Amino acid sequence: MKIVPVMICLILILSGCDKLYSPEQSQKIILENEGQSYKVMLVYDKNLNEVILQINNSNIPILNDVSEEQIFNPQPSDEYTFQLSTNGNKIMVGSTYAFTNKYGSTSWINCFEYKDDQIKKIWSSDDILHHKFAVNSFTEESQTLEISMGQDLRRIILSDEETELWLDYVKFHQDGAQSLPELFFVINPAFTFYDYNNDGIEELITKTIISFEGCPISRAYFSAYQFSTDDIKQIEGWFRGTYPSIEQLDSLS
């Protein structure tokens, strides 16, 4: 099944028990679950300042502390936008906050399951931010770092300047009898949907900024996820420079 994200330009406003509808709500999409169809909507609760995912009689918060102006009358550097996709009884909600910082934006992607009239979160792009990864080795001749990421090995090729920074850092830590720095994920600034492997199905592509503890070296790391009726799972990950045509997509730049 091809996953088609829907841009949510205007969200329902809840004020007490009143709902204000608009023509843009024709964009809400249908969830197929066990032979039945349900409307899937993003809702804004004015009283709680929350964006909510609503299906039938069930709902779950997506974002907290969001002002009405940031959605309906935003400034270019203070704006929330959303994307919504479904596959079977699975729902994916992507949220992006555009603001002025060194990364330009922050994104959150959450995947939910709708079953027995209940919405349950089953995956979040923020999960990766809690992981740290070890540096296995550094080859000075090729200026290459080798990093263990789960069961896979990833490589980062450093520039001349970064190589000097790395060698200085390693020397400092070896003198202090400390271990090499760990790599950790800092922020998810962007995501998109793109058929990166030409299989006719759009995958979720996320961009994550990685850094090293105490070392001024950072990189963009990209992940491709398969969003199926069963679950969402990572099928590939790579550092910037591996697939330039994907990395340079406007939605990821």
What labels describe this entry?
3 helices, disordered N terminus, 9% helix, seven-stranded antiparallel sheet, mainly beta, 253 residues
What this model shows, in words?
The chain is mainly β and 253 residues long. It has 2 domains: 6-127, no CATH class; 131-247, no CATH class. Helix content is 9%, strand content 55%. It is built from 3 helices and 18 strands. It has helices at residues 69-72, 160-175, 244-247; strands at residues 6-7, 12-15, 18-20, 29-33, 36-45, 50-55, 58-63, 78-87, 90-99, 105-115, 118-124, 132-139, 144-149, 152-157, 182-194, 203-212, 215-227, 232-239. The strands form 3 sheets. It has a 7-stranded antiparallel beta sheet with strand order 14-13-12-15-16-17-18, with helices on one face. Strands 2, 3, 4, 5, 6 and 7 form a 6-stranded mixed beta sheet that branches. Strands 1-8-9-10-11 form a 5-stranded antiparallel beta sheet. A hairpin with a 2-residue loop joins strand 6 and strand 7. It is elongated, with a radius of gyration of 21 Å. Residues 1-28 have low confidence and may be disordered.
Strand arrangement across the biggest beta sheet = 14-13-12-15-16-17-18
Structural domain count: 2
* Biggest sheet details: 7 strands, antiparallel
Low-confidence stretches: 1-28
